[in-house]
User: Which sequence fits this backbone?
């Protein structure tokens, strides 16, 4: 949904998004996530959603550790496949390609040594 403008979301998607944001706000505040607290926050924002969404989210939140979910993140998928190997001298290529690859690898290694962590 992040790539879709809010005005193009269906009412169900808007309701889900409202409840998600409200649940995150309540969790961040340390408040209990209940259907009433979700409804209160949604109404305070000047919004509305179907009545079943806050109850559904409150039930889901009661069975989950929201903090653990947030720490786990999205998990992401696997990395992209490696590129095809460059042609060597036996394949009709030149040896200069291998030297270029070594330079590129060295630059990548230097980038890894930056000791930068987004979450620390």
Assistant:
């Amino acid at each position: 949904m992040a790539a879709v403008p809010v005005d193009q979301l269906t009412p169900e998607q808007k309701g889900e998004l409202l409840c998600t944001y409200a649940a995150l706000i309540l969790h961040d505040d340390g408040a209990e996530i209940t259907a009433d607290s979700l409804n209160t926050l949604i109404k305070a924002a000047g919004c509305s959603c179907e009545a079943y969404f806050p109850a559904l989210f409150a039930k889901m939140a009661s069975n989950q550790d929201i903090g653990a979910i947030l720490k786990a993140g999205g998990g992401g998928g696997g990395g992209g496949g490696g590129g095809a190997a460059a042609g060597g001298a036996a394949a009709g290529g030149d040896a200069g390609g291998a030297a270029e690859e070594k330079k590129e690898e060295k630059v990548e290694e230097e980038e890894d040594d930056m000791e930068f962590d987004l979450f620390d």
